Amino acid sequence: MTGITQSTDDFAFPTIALKIADLLALTAALEAVPCRYLWAGKADWNTDPATIHGLDCSGFVKYSTARVTDGATIWDDGSQEMHAQAKRVGFKLSSIEAAEVHDGYLRIFFLAPVFDEHGEMIEAGHTGYVYNGQTIESHGGVGVGRRDWTGAGWQGRCEVFVLTTPGQAIKL
């Protein structure tokens, strides 16, 4: 993965160099379209957000991260692959409870898919960001938007990683 800032004296883990304000502005632009949830929906990073009418969860994360870093940071395709990539890169593992806090950290969450005893997927995986106690995601029935992160229900089964620190997001 390119576009990664390696550990510093202030934070001993890699981070992504992006401006939170740019991510929030892009999210608002996609909400205004509106950009609905579309299974397997993807877009190239340089696609005008006004022309995107459907993204799935991983498509949104991949597009938005790349878009706000001018193509410098590219995630793998699919939430399971992104989850493995986050572990390989060495992003700091956070807690579900920490994601509820308004602390200025941008986090990414991953919900693993659920399979039955025959190996059939009965619940799809999911991914999105968490910032100051709210998700930033594309999810079924809605599309791109935000909702409260409470750590309850499906959120309690997620693994969460830190992508940016508050100081980093302000300095950029």
The CATH topology: endopeptidase fold (from Nostoc punctiforme)
Tell me, briefly, the overall form: globular
Q: How many separate domains?
A: 1
Broad CATH class:
Alpha Beta
Global structural class: alpha+beta
Mean pLDDT: 91
Spans with pLDDT under 50 lasting ≥5 residues?
A: none
Question: Roughly what fraction of the amino acids lie in strands?
Answer: 15-25%
Ends apart, CA distance between termini: 20 Å
Strand order of the largest sheet: 10-9-8-5-11
* Overall radius of gyration: 15 Å
CATH architecture group name = Alpha-Beta Complex
Largest sheet: number of strands, sense, barrel closure: 5 strands, antiparallel
CATH superfamily: endopeptidase domain like (from Nostoc punctiforme)
How much helix, percentage-wise, in residues?
10-25%
The number of helical segments is 4
> H/E order of the elements?
EEHEEHHEEEEEEEH
Number of strands: 11
Structural write-up:
This protein is an alpha+beta fold and 172 residues long. It has one domain (11-171): Alpha-Beta Complex (endopeptidase fold (from Nostoc punctiforme)). It is 24% helix and 24% strand. The protein contains 4 helices and 11 strands. The strands form 4 sheets. The protein has a 5-stranded antiparallel sheet with strand order 10-9-8-5-11. A two-stranded antiparallel ribbon has the order 1-2. The chain is globular. 38% of the residues are buried.
